[in-house]
Each structure stands twice: as C-alpha cells, then as structure tokens.
Amino acid sequence: MVYFDNAATTKPCKEAISVLNDSLLKFGNPSSLHGLGLEASQIISLARKQIASSLDVDDSEIYFTSGATEANNTAIFGAASKLGKRMKKIVISSVEHPSVSEPCRILESKGFDVVKISPQSDGFHVEDFVNAVDENTCLVSCMLCNNEIGAMLPVSEVFKTLKKKYPQTILHCDFVQGFLKLSLKQKELHADMISLSGHKIHALKGVGALYIKKNLHIPPFIYGGGQERGFRSGTESVPLISSFGAAADAMYKNLDANFHHVQMLSEHLRCEVKSLDGIALNSPSDGSPYINSISVGNIRSEVLLHFLEGREIYVSSGSACSKGKKSKVLTEFHIPDSVADSTIRISFCPENTIEEVDLLLEALKDAKNNLVGIK
Ligand code: PMP
Fold first, then answer.
1. Is 69 helix (H, G, I), strand (E, B) or coil?
2. Are 371 and 303 spatial neighbours (Cβ–Cβ below 8 Å)?
3. CB of 119 closer than 6 angstroms to any ligand 1 atom
4. Which residues, 6+ apart, have CB-to-CB distance to 84 below 8 Å?
5. By CB count within 10 A, which of 50, 93, 247, 288 is most buried?
6. What pLDDT is attached to residue 338?
7. Other C-beta atoms lying within 10 Å of the C-beta of residue 126
8. What is the dihedral angle through the alpha carbons of 67, 264, 158, 133, rounded to the nearest 10 degrees?
C-alpha cells in the first residue's frame, strides 16, 4: 500500500510505539504521591522536555492537550478572555483550519470583530495583516503552513512587525503542518502561543500541546483538579504524551534529512505533473514539499480518490477535515470551482519513496485516460 495522506494523519513511528508500550504498564496517576505516580510524572517530564527542545523553549512553557483542536480553542478563547473586555478585534487568515475559524465565529457572535485576511493572487502580503491590526486587537492567529495546499503564510514577518508595533496583542500560530517538518522554532515564529498535534508527526492521536510564552498568563480553558500546573485539568494520558515526546525527538534528529528527501519526492511529482496534459498543480512552488495539491482533468475528487484506492494508493480529496464538503480554502487561494472539484491532496512523510511517486503518476495517467468525464 502507498500512503500519501500524511497531512490527515501519520503512521506511528517505532520510537512512539516502543515508549507507548513501556508506559502502558507504568499506569500510575502522575498526580499520585507514591512511586508509581512519580514514575508516570517522570515520563511526562521527559516528553515535555523533548517537545520544548524541538521548539527551543523552556519546558515550563509547554502544556499538553488532547490535540491541536483543543490547543487552538484554548489559545483563542484564552486570549479573548484575557484581553477581550476592552480589545474586541481578532485578525486571522481566511484559510485557517476550522479549529481556529470556528472558535472565532463563536466569538464574533459574542460581539468580537473578526477580520479575515485573504491571499492576493500572488499569496499573502505582510502589510495586509499589519494594516488590519490596531490597538484594540486582542489576538492575531495565523497558521504557518496551510493543510490543504501547503502554502506558507508569512507568520514570522507579520508577528515580528506586530510585536514591535502592538506589543499588547497576543500572537498565536497553528503550527500543526510545519512542526518538525520545516526547520522553524519559536524564536523564528515570534509567536506568543503555538499549537502542535501529535498524530501529524508520527505519534498517537489524541495528544497535542500548546506553547505559551512565560508570563503571558492566559486563563485556563478546562478547569478541574489542576493538572498541567493548573492550566489544563484532567488526568494526563501518560502513554499518549510519551509517544508524542518520542516521535518529536526522532523527527527532530532527522529534520534536515527528512526535509531533503521529501523535497526530492515533491520536486519529482511536481515536475512530472507539469508535463502531463490536463493535470494542474494547485500548490505554490514555494510551499511546503510535504503537501501537494493537484487537480486531474474534470474527474471529481472522490471518483479519483476511490480509483487510486483501488490500486492501494491512499490520498485525500482536498482536506480530510472537510469530509467531502466544498472547500472554501481552495476558493480563497483563487482556485476556480471547476478545478477545486477535481482536487486531490498528496501529502508525504519521510518513509515515502520515489517508486511510490512513480506508481501514483502511472495511476494518474490511467485515471485521466479512463475516467475523464465521470462526474
Ligand atoms: N490545524 C491544522 C492546520 C490541522 O491540519 C489539523 C488537523 N487536521 C488541526 C489543526 C487539528 O489537529 P488535531 O487533529 O490534533 O485536533
């Protein structure tokens, strides 16, 4: 089988599975004062250290969550609750994941002014974000890498400028599709809060983290027994957290080699696709090599997806999160509806090979010859 749906989720790596197995039997409650509790809390401390060092931040700035959806919700509602009494404006990009855009929609219904910045025909412009922000802006939230087409957003430049101009405004980045794929750390992002997800980097599903800059004092989103230093209550899932730490550690060690390998795969795919009649590349040339969006003839995405599945090649139609719903994100990126309807997303991981890309290319050629016109 050829798995090209890594932006949706990844296969757990051997490092993650190995620590997961070990920690399943170290079942103490990390809050318990006896030895079993201590053993469990040490596993969490190690994972926290591993995540913190891959972002080059202090351990105390990492809070574990159930995933990036929770991290994004926590960041957005937290910023609104901290500053929103007097600062009622929120600025986001128009291509955010629903776990950012939906909380903002809820805040809009409660009186916040949510401004969405759209890409121009040549991509996002720093000044479009900067000009939208004013002294009443409590939060700017911007993803680094778009999950549907891999376009990169100018987070570093925007946040660096805003930090100087509006030091009060909280800057949040959904870093899910960039974390440990692109060599960027917190200092380069200039973000006050950063959301991460475990299952996009070969850990298990159901775990993620939120980086919060020291002394930012964001109020908790989940209240209870006071775990995660009072910020995120609920008994920690030690096995999931340990898998996240181990996967991050393994990805961090191989970040550059992985990037070059995936870049080679992506260049091969993009170059071959360009030479094929009737197949359009939707991803920008300077986007992440991990995510490649293409449209094939006028074959509907789902028809092509199932044709490829018949050959045991797994891709996604646009974004898995939109589950077949028409993607507004593709429209935002100026992709015409007729092309968007035929879009598939091919997302790589370092285990993918050039031979697998060739299998896909062969299958795409066959699909084009056999399926064109099937709606
Ligand atoms: N943000 C982005 C950009 C994503 O791609 C995803 C996963 N589709 C999420 C947030 C949500 O992550 P999780 O599945 O960990 O809740």
1. helix
2. yes
3. no
4. 107, 112, 138
5. 247
6. 85
7. 17
8. -60
